Automatic annotation (TrEMBL):
It comes from the Bacteria. Residues 224-365 form the Fumarylacetoacetase-like C-terminal domain. This is Fumarylacetoacetate hydrolase. It comes from Bradyrhizobium valentinum. The lineage of its organism: Bacteria, Pseudomonadati, Pseudomonadota, Alphaproteobacteria, Hyphomicrobiales. GO terms for molecular function: hydrolase activity; metal ion binding.
Amino acid sequence: MPIVTDAAFILPDDFADAALMGRIWRPDLAGPSVVAIRQDGVFDITDDFPTSSQLAAVADPAQALRAAPGARVGTLQDLLNNTPPDTRDPTRPWLLAPIDLQVIKAAGVTFAVSMLERVIEERARGNPDSAEAIRAEVTRIVGTDLSRLKPGSAEAQHVKDVLVSQNAWSQYLEVGIGPDAEVFTKAPILSAVGTCVDAGLHPKSTWNNPEPEVVLVVAHDGRIVGATLGNDVNLRDFEGRSALLLSKAKDNNASCAIGPFVRFFDAKFTLDDIRKMEISLEVKGPEGFVLHGASSLTQISRDPADIVGQTINENHQYPDGFVLFLGTMFAPIQDRAAKGQGFTHVEGDLVTVATPKLGRLTNRMRHSGDCEPWQFGLTELFTALMRRKGVGRSSN
């Protein structure tokens, strides 16, 4: 099943008003470039901003992006057409994930629905056969409307006391309605994959799912300067067996998809737009299976600014900034292979995460070992940037 590479499909609906930053691989320079996505083409602005993290750090990234002249490297459609690895011409440029030196962080259990699914995973010990019966039991004890509880409030503490008395408390409820958010490192710097490429699943996982999320872009001083989309690929069986397996459940080759572009905040796109966003998800399977889902940020338990404040503060700094997955309310329970087993991926699934103001992130699911290996790290980035000094701008 081919990956959709149509530019009109990938771009935000209001593209003409959007300040969009991306990254591309330039074979002629043997390295990545920071680019501005404009109506008249894609422009390499690396001479002004060698890394995307440097652009995100300026006082007004949207204005700086628009002001940087750059060198035209082609059309977005040509770049998209050359991005899928199966048909790529390695002598021509292609798209990458739109971030580089930013630390990749993620917030977990920020929605009541997904919080309950985490409790179910924990009680099922990673076995999908047990999930349906446990879901009914947990819903009976906990209820389904925890979304109105403010984490850390007196009301939340009362709910905790009741659940503890019924032996129904969970570590996931602790971070879901307790005072402290769960924030973890999703993946190493430079390891994220972008749109129109393969995303990775651990081959030993038999119960897993996509997690469609908004990803905030945060500067070194804590300013939230923009956003993009992400798929926080999750292995439910691994994490369900033990929360100590979180790193194996979350961090595998190509298991962090981010893109298609970073949209910087300006007069027409602000944090308030994020707070009311609805993120849609579509999974198309090679056998004809189709799954649709959605995640509304209006249902999030913690305000995005609060989660950022719990991530960067006097106790923890990020000199090159960070990006932050905000979590998802989407928890797929639609049966796929057998009744009562819910959803899990199969190789070849096409996953599209979308919202009108950020565009569409689309990836094909494969085993992590079959995805493109991650070979370009920090040493290679510094070498590439030093090599291109003095090369000057080129255009076509």
